[in-house]
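From the pipeline queue, job 12 of 40. The input is one protein chain; the requested action is below.

Action: predict structure.
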Amino acid sequence: MWFFRRMLRIPWSAKKTNERVLNEANKRRSLVRTTRKRQATFLGHVMKRGKLEHLVTTGKFEEKRSRGRQREKIMDGLATWLGTGKVLDTLTAVKDGICGET
């Protein structure tokens, strides 16, 4: 982000958020979008194989939950990114290859 601030000549003392700097530079964040797309294509690949990886990603293991805030699961993140809301709909969308179009 520092290079956009440097190009736009925004001093370090200016209290501008990174989002505002990106808007001024007419840029969008692409790292998260690229990561989610790759996760979705990999998950589609795993679902089509239907082996151990399928069981690991869809099954639940009986174990004691860890303390503190629970980590975000890949399936939940993909469900919000694809806008499906449910894990089953996400699995169907990923298996059908819809993730590449989004």
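Job complete. Residues 31-60+71-100 form one domain.
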